[in-house]
Write a structure and sequence with these properties.
- Helices cover 41% and strands 16% of the residues.
- By secondary structure, it is of the alpha+beta class.
- The chain is globular, with a radius of gyration of 18 Å.
Length: 247
């Protein structure tokens, strides 16, 4: 399952986000920020687990990467400067991104006015107002479901990726929260994110057992082995079976 990593510039500074459908995020922030919208996206798709954990780690130290983002914005595209390269590679390694992928993380700058006339952008803007977004959020209220359960209960068709677009819109509007179904217990609590509703009461959990394989090893989480835990049932240790992601 693919995910994207990006940062968006707000009045109080840059914040990091992960997304299943970038066009929806661009439309959402354009609606909030207008033609002054600035987003910087890593163009290479990551696994959802990689994108999510990169966002979580980057958002814990937003000030550390501010100058890097400002430089990327001014240069429009490119690679972080030598000042940040060592720390950036170490962070990517901790989040399961190998060096061969890090070298391909080219950055794209989204600017509000330049995106408005694109058909994909207009289509994504319409999704934000689609009644299915509210319906899905209401259906998931108070529940913690895996991907296939969400699709079965909501009636969303998997073909064409519409499920990802609708769920991403629901998260941006504050109706659901998309996380990893299996997470490191020590880092399982979410980072505070500006401009989101005061309390996200619904959480959408994604079965991502393969994340364990991607992140396992001495480099993970600053040198310690992760303690994987299912966010749905609390199982951990030998009760977690690592398997390839079917999606």
């Amino acid at each position: 399952m693919k995910g994207f990593l990006y940062a968006v510039k707000l009045e109080q500074g840059w914040i990091w986000r992960s997304s299943l459908a970038m066009e929806v995020d661009a439309a959402f922030w354009h609606r909030k920020l207008g033609v002054g919208m600035r987003m910087i996206q890593a163009e290479l798709p990551l696994s959802w687990g990689q994108a999510f954990w990169m966002k979580e780690n980057l958002q814990r130290e937003p000030g550390k990467w501010r100058d890097m983002l400002e430089g990327l914005e001014q240069n429009m595209v490119g690679w972080p400067s030598e000042k940040y390269e060592k720390d950036w590679r170490e962070l990517c390694q901790r989040c399961g991104i190998p060096d061969v992928m890090v070298d391909k993380l080219i950055w794209r700058v989204w600017k509000g006015q330049a995106e408005v006339d694109k058909q994909s952008f207009r289509d994504a803007a319409e999704v934000l107002d689609h009644p299915d977004v509210r319906r899905i959020a209401e259906m998931l209220a108070g529940r913690s479901l895996l991907r296939d359960e969400v699709l079965a209960d909501s009636g969303i068709e998997e073909n064409g990726g519409r499920w990802a677009v609708l769920l991403q819109a629901a998260e941006l509007e504050g109706g659901v929260r998309i996380r990893c179904g299996v997470e490191d217990a020590a880092l399982a609590e979410p980072v505070e994110e500006p401009l989101q509703p005061q309390a996200w009461r619904q959480r959408l959990q994604w079965a991502r057992a393969a994340l364990g394989r991607a992140l396992a090893g001495p480099a993970c989480r600053g040198g310690r082995e992760p303690r994987w835990m299912c966010r749905r049932c609390g199982a951990s240790g030998d009760h977690i079976r690592i398997a390839a992601c079917p999606h």
